[in-house]
Amino acid sequence: MRASASPSIDADAVFAPLAQEDSLLLAVSGGPDSIALMLLAARWSLRRKKNIAIATVDHGLRPESREEARRVGEWARAQGFPHHNLVWRGAKPNTRIQEHAREKRYQLLARCAKEIGAGAIVTAHHSDDQAETILFRLTRGSGIAGLAAMSPLSPLGDLRLHRPLLALKKERLEAFCAEAGHEFLRDGSNENPRFARARLRQLQATLAAQGLDSAALLRLGARAAQADEALVWSAAELTDDARPQRDGSNVRLETAALRGAPVELIQRVIAGEIARFGLQTSLRLERLERAAQKIAQALDRSERIKTTLGGAVLTLTDRNLVISSEKPRRSQRAKLLKIANGGDETA
Q: What pLDDT is recorded for position 331?
């Protein structure tokens, strides 16, 4: 690899958005990007005023993962950071393994953060990751919010997820590690054509020759983020205009405000209200779009309809759209009743 002419990175500038955080958990896998994140944290002028810990997730998917986690632990302690090795135990799924691994990684990181009292998790996602994520979502027909890709700061349950390296390229982070004389690991699965992202990486040269290089993808993501911000603002305005009456697990919206509104805004209003219920079910975009289209058509025709979406019931009447948490089905109610009466929840 050819190092960049100016590999040095200003740690204080990188971590400036995290200055208000008191306790941080850094996700460090051992790759050059996450090792650079750890080294920058070690050079941060506010380091001594913060509680900073390192966590490595061992997914147990490769024979060498255990030894790699051990080495990261040694490197973290050498920098003066406590280290937590988080192991994904139990049987692994046979399909969508990378998606499940990503979900498990965040679950383990969130659990560790809460156990040590950290209010925020920090990952080493960089600009190459951002461009790759945009391309990945583009190939899957993602909506505007998906094409906006990763934000420097986003919620993770009741925690905050920071991505301070999004403006930096992987090549520069590798050069920074080389400048510091620090080792890092290589994950061979990143080149395994079994995985969709690895196959996309193999197409990068062909796509770049057609003008779809990292810079173009990042421009697309930035423009999508700007459009998404406008849609979020408009959806909030529409929600206010609908004069929501919230009562526990249901909300009542006035149809007069919703009638004639763009379907995109209606679906965002619906998604926002369902999210308030705290349901564990994630809304699939296709289902959300169908439900919003159905509601919009019924509004135009002054029809009454009732449909379900993501654990919620949507009931449209002449004057209101009522969104309520769906009651447990009979089998689920029986299970919950058994648990409440002291039964075994695994039965």
A: 43
